Amino acid sequence: MTTSNETVRDRIDRARLELSPPQILAVVALTAALGFALLFLQEPLAHDSMHNFRHAAGITCH
Question: Do the Cβ atoms of 49 and 41 come closer than 8 Å?
């Protein structure tokens, strides 16, 4: 349930209440792994693959 005046801070607070520590750790680990891949795997195939994944996930990158 989102409202028009909900802030990012509100979402973070709600996530802290609803997610367990292992779930939060999994999200942080996945984010770190994807960040590492994007920063250090700049070979064309890996880069294009991650670029297409971001678009498939609905993330606008340009």
Answer: no
Residue 21 inside a domain? The answer is yes
Would the pTM count as exceeding 0.85?
A: no
Q: Please tell me the distance from the alpha carbon of residue 53 to that of residue 11, in angstroms, as a whole number.
A: 24
The CA–CA distances, whole Å, from 4 to 7, 8, 17, 37 equal: 9, 12, 21, 34
SS3 label, residue 3: coil
* 10-29 pLDDT per residue, tens: 988 898 899 999 998 999 99
Residue 17 lies in a domain: yes
* Furthest-apart CA atoms within the chain: distance in Å: 41
